Amino acid sequence: MTPVPVITVDGPSGAGKGTISHMLAEHLGWHLLDSGALYRVTGQACLIEGVSWDDHPAVTEVARHLDVRFQVDEHGEVRVAYKGQDVSAAIRTEEGGRGASTVAAIPSVRDALLARQRDFLQPPGLVADGRDMGTVVFPAAPLKFFLTASAAERAERRYKQLISKGGSVSLARLLKDIEERDERDSTRTVSPLVPAKDAIVIDSTATPIEEVFGQVLQAVTESGLA
Ligand SMILES: Nc1ncnc2c1ncn2[C@@H]1O[C@H](COP(=O)(O)OP(=O)(O)OP(=O)(O)O)[C@@H](O)[C@H]1O
Ligand SMILES: Nc1ccn([C@@H]2O[C@H](COP(=O)(O)O)[C@@H](O)[C@H]2O)c(=O)n1
């Protein structure tokens, strides 16, 4: 039987993984795994359940029994519910990102979420967005990308994104958050943020998103996957 194909897209926060993964999954008609959302919901679920992010056994229990649902609404937006409660906005805040990267550094939490992530691999194929998709979750993926950009450029992008949604944020604060998250994600002992040895690395610091997508599509075509 031919294995179900998976394309992995890893990289640091704000590198464009979500945007590119979404475009690619839509273009190919494949499923999409937003693995960061699982860590974000775990962090948020801890807040809801009154569990401290530092209480590793309790956070692991939360991750093991995570009652999470992803649903596309009438505007085509993905809504995320924890125990039936819409947490879509809460998990996308900077605090949501901090919570995610704190709980994501706990090895037993990563173990608890591993099978759930692999369950997303369904025909006709999967685009998997995260930090360790190509190194740990789908190490045998036939095509892997690692997107990156300078921290200053990524903070600027996040700033524009938040301002366009009517938020008020400080660019300096965003840059500090991004640098701290990079540090936590790349220095943790389990599944640190590193490119897989066989990943195609794309630095988009000075490259518009359409051009990045063009490079990705070209590699997909050359791989013969689609
Ligand atoms: N090459 C690019 N040029 C300009 N803007 C970009 C580029 N790539 C992404 N962006 C913009 O940067 C913002 C962040 O992108 P995106 O959410 O895809 O990043 P991400 O890597 O998934 O981040 P996170 O891991 O934090 O979810 C979005 O507003 C997106 O439109
Ligand atoms: N495979 C992954 C995905 C995410 N994380 C952690 O979650 C944080 C939030 O991820 P986003 O992609 O939604 O920004 C991220 O900073 C990582 O700490 C992870 O560890 N592994």
Count of the separate structural domains: 2
Largest sheet: 5 strands, parallel
Shape designation: globular
Structural class: alpha/beta
**CATH uppermost class of the largest domain:** Alpha Beta
What is the topology, as strand order, of the major beta sheet? Answer: 2-6-1-7-8
Ligands bound, unique: adenosine-5'-triphosphate, the ligand Nc1ccn([C@@H]2O[C@H](COP(=O)(O)O)[C@@H](O)[C@H]2O)c(=O)n1
Mean pLDDT: 95
Order of helices and strands: EHEHHEEEHHHEHEHHEH
Unreliable stretches (pLDDT < 50, length at least 5) are none
State the total count of DSSP E strands.
8
- β-strand percent reads 15-25%
Q: In angstroms, what is the radius of gyration?
A: 17 Å
CA-to-CA gap between the ends? 18 Å
Number of helices: 10
Helix content: 40-55%
* Multimerization state: single chain
Q: What is the third-level CATH name, the topology of the largest domain?
A: Rossmann fold
**CATH fourth-tier homologous superfamily of the largest domain:** P-loop containing nucleotide triphosphate hydrolases
CATH-scheme architecture of the largest domain: 3-Layer(aba) Sandwich
